[in-house]
Amino acid sequence: xxxxxxxxxxxxxxxxxxxxxxxxxxxxxxxxxxxxxxxxxxxxxxxxxxxxxxxxxxxxxxxxxxxxxxxxxxxxxxxxxxxxxxxxxxxxxxxxxxxxxxxxxxxxxxxxxxxxxxxxxxxxxxxxxxxxxxxxxxxxxxxxxxxxxxxxxxxxxxx
Length: 159
Hints:
Layout: H1 2-10, H2 14-18, H3 24-36, H4 38-56, H5 66-74, H6 83-90, H7 93-116, H8 149-157
């Protein structure tokens, strides 16, 4: 029973002992046990050979970068004003038909409102007198400064 308990205490430190990672007193304790216990010595050889085989394998990079997938799924989504079209196209046919009919009704109402609200071109009779404004006239001249040429020349020369 004491030997078995000693093996259970030593075995977790075998690989560290084989790689030389244990300090002086711990290394001496494991070495003393290995001289007496053939089972633990065989286990040490097995662990060292397995560790050597693992170390000889090349490092492999994963095919799919997990973080790229996480970033792709957690990016902030852009505002898409036409997202309702995707909803309608994936909705059952009754919802699509209802949405199409509603859109047609709104379009028809807007067109009719545009025709009805257009002026007819005939003046509306009223009792108030209309004051007519004089027409706007434009005077073209070869003198863009409008007889202020001398003042502009004087201003420029004083600069």
